[in-house]
Amino acid sequence: MDETASRLPVIRNFGGRFGLRTGALALFWVLTAAAPHAAWAQQPDLPVVTAAKPVVRDIVEDDEFVGRFEAVDEVAIRSRVSGYLAEVHFRDGAVVNKGDLLFTIDQRPYQATFDAAKSQVDVARSLTEFSASQLERAEALSKSGNLAVSILDDRRRESLAAQAQLQGAEASLRNASLNLEFTEIRAPLSGRIDRRLVSPGNLVQPDSTLLTTIVAWDPIDFYFDIDERTYFSYARDARERGGTMQEGASNLDVVVRVADRSEAQFKGKLDFAENRLDDASGTMRVRARFDNKDGVLQPGMFGRVNVPGSLPHRGILVPDQAIGADQDRRIVFVLDDTGTVSTKPVRTGPNLDGYRVIREGLTGDETIVVNGLMRVRPGVKVKAEMVTLPPKAETAE
After folding, report:
1. Rounded CA gap, 376 and 322, in Å?
2. Which residue in 101, 252, 297, 377 could disulfide with 270, CB within 3.0 to 4.6 Å?
3. Element (H, E) at 266
4. DSSP classification of residue 234
5. Minimal CA–CA distance to 357: which of 59, 52, 64, 50?
């Protein structure tokens, strides 16, 4: 008779003394206590994770920088003459061509000044012609001895004074003509114009009243900053190509991405770097130029530019979600042949084709956990569902 059967009479007596219900509860307690190992003997299911081999292929690592687009040319439109604004000849936000009429200042005062200057030129020209004929007559009389030399000198002085007066009148006419021309404000370059900042009827002050702005939009420049170590790397590559960073920047191909992920990446070339590093930040500003025929890229827009930062080499790529953190280092979870989890510290590189480059820590032959990192820890056995990672991630931009 086992231990449980030996206890049954006691339970009967106990039930008889305290009631059937109480006795049943006591029996359940005894049976549970008698076989505690029955529930614990069942082994729990192994955690299920997704595992894969890293992607191994030839890559060129990119350096990524954040920068801002700026217009190749930008002009603030101001008037050169004062006056009341008479007309506006453009539509806000339109594309204008060089030489298009934008604003007209009230021309009547300047037209009157021009007419007066023109009349002064006519007077000075007639006086010059008269003094020239007087000088010719005096020279003829002086040769025959019928005119004193002093009178001849006076006639010569009067002729020279008339010529100078004519030159002054012509200069005043040119100035009046320029002022009259400046009452018509035209586009100095082709580009997209901003809204009008002054309405007709307002007084415009020369060189101070801002009327609008124009920015060139094709091509467009992208500026970003690089540190000193990166500069040496790029400068070395530029010298191998027979150029310098400051002059052409070796025309290195670059790619920029904007905040809107639905927009495709834009391809351009490095074409300029500043001639010194900034004393405060220790960085150098670099420029890349991009075609912008469709006008998608706008001045002031932020972007992320990728610049080739290495020669082609064998690279190991893993998804970002497969990388964990252990205090101040990055780790990946590796599975052995029995499904036991261990960790390997890694040194990560840039993002490439939707994957993270692993510069140190992996050989590419390991089996790593790519999904389910929250369910694993070192020394735990797991059930791995193997998948094959594509050469380029589906989420790659």
Report:
1. 12
2. 252
3. strand 266-273
4. H
5. 59
Q: Which two three-digit tokens encode residue 191?
A: 């580009």
The tokens for 55 are: 């992607």
Tokens 């056995």 correspond to 381
Residue 93 belongs to a domain with what CATH number? Answer: 2.40.50.100
Domain span at 252: 63-71+219-308
Could you list the pLDDT tens digit for every one of the 397 residues in the chain?
Answer: 444 444 444 444 444 444 445 444 454 444 444 444 444 444 568 889 999 999 999 887 777 889 999 999 999 999 999 999 999 999 999 999 999 999 999 999 999 999 999 999 999 999 999 898 888 888 888 887 777 888 888 888 988 999 999 999 999 999 999 999 999 999 999 999 999 999 999 999 999 999 999 999 889 999 999 888 888 777 776 676 666 666 655 677 888 988 876 667 899 988 888 888 888 888 889 899 999 988 888 899 999 998 876 667 788 999 999 999 888 889 999 999 899 999 999 988 878 888 999 988 999 999 999 998 888 889 999 998 999 999 888 665 4
Same domain, 190 and 93: yes
Give the DSSP H/E element, type plus range, for residue 75: strand 74-78
**Structure tokens, 178:** 């320029």
From the list 241, 317, 388, the residue with the least C-alpha distance to 62 is 317
Pairing of β 383-386 and β 48-52: parallel
Instruction: Evaluate whether 321 touches 393 at the Cβ level (below 8 Å).
Output: no
Identify the helix (H) or strand (E) that includes residue 124.
helix 108-144
Residue 395 belongs to a domain: no
Residues 134 and 98 in one domain: no
